[in-house]
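Hi team,

As requested, here is the filled-out complex form for the guanosine-5'-diphosphate run. I kept the field names the same as last time so the parser does not choke. Let me know if anything looks off before we queue the next batch.

— J.
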Amino acid sequence: MKVGIVGFARSGKTTVFNALTGARAEVGAFGSRDANVAVIKVPDARVDRLAEMYKPKKVTYAEFQFVDIAPNESAGDERALNPAALTLLKNAEALVHVVRAFENEAVMHPLSSVDPARDARALEEELQLSDLIIIEKRIERLEKEHKKDQELQTLTRAREHIEAGKPLRTLELSPAELREIKGFEFLSLKPMMLLGNYGEAAIGSEDPAGLHAVAEALGLVHIDLCGEMEMEVAQLPEDERAGFREELGLGEESRTRFLQAAYDMLGLMSFLTAGEPEVRAWTIPKNTRAADAAGVIHSDIQRGFIRAEVIGYDDLVAAGSATKAKEAGHARLEGRDYIVRDGDVILFRFNV
Ligand SMILES: Nc1nc2c(ncn2[C@@H]2O[C@H](COP(=O)(O)OP(=O)(O)O)[C@@H](O)[C@H]2O)c(=O)[nH]1
Ligand SMILES: [Mg+2]
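And here is what came back:
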């Protein structure tokens, strides 16, 4: 899963990036790189437990990759995203909008004042505008070529939706329509999370900047974070973190809270594979068919799919081994249309 971090200059994007990933990218700086990139592993107690059972050579957790784009520092620029950023974000599967909600007189907001609700709406508009430009160009082209096909109809609906001030992620699209416009990588179609970045004064208070209501009005998932403190804690040795969190009243790990919200927002779940070579978690959208889940591992397994041998995680752990789970009748043979469930431990039978 690839997540793009967006937001106005100095909203704390790089700070939050460091907080979530434990990276040490330079904060408050005009870097020369296009983007900072880091990967986090998704903690999963089921993987840990299966690793104890199988003692595999390799243990692999699901991963999230974060891309923290370079700031739009052109002086006086009142937008969050420049053309380079817009292009980079096309590769992201989801966006996190870091909204500045901390006061710091030494750090100028590009719009001169701290106003989280304004920023949340402004960035949403930027995404929509960038989509609208692409849509209009494409429609013009299709009309010139006298192509009155399905694509033109879908794009016309998309244009009307954006002209009504709404992001494409709230437009109802049939699977066929979605396939048609997928290639454009519209930014307002990507799932987005609002992340309020608060100063330490906000610790312990409920929604101090009123961002929850804004997120709800925009139909966005949201979380609150004290970016700077979270970053400092993330950079401590691991055994000191819990103590500091408690002392500072920081609550649950920001990474855990982020991941919960992200899985929710994206409708994700995990299935597992377990054997002596490797125990591994795989992330898939809910309601994925067995054959498509196989394709996440390798396209050959999808193509040559015969059967999925499935044992529920709880049954497997209760039985103590796959052999015992099978003896107890907990192993099921499922076909390609079986809808994979969270925590299924799967062995794919295939033929290539
Ligand atoms: N007081 C305070 N300052 C912050 C916080 N988050 C970021 N900053 C400061 O804001 C400036 C910009 O942060 P940075 O992460 O580089 O923002 P970016 O431009 O969005 O990547 C830096 O000087 C940070 O130290 C925060 O939660 N509280
Ligand atoms: Mg930055």
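Two things worth flagging: The radius of gyration is 23 Å. The CA atoms of residues 193 and 262 lie 8 Å apart.

Thanks,
J.
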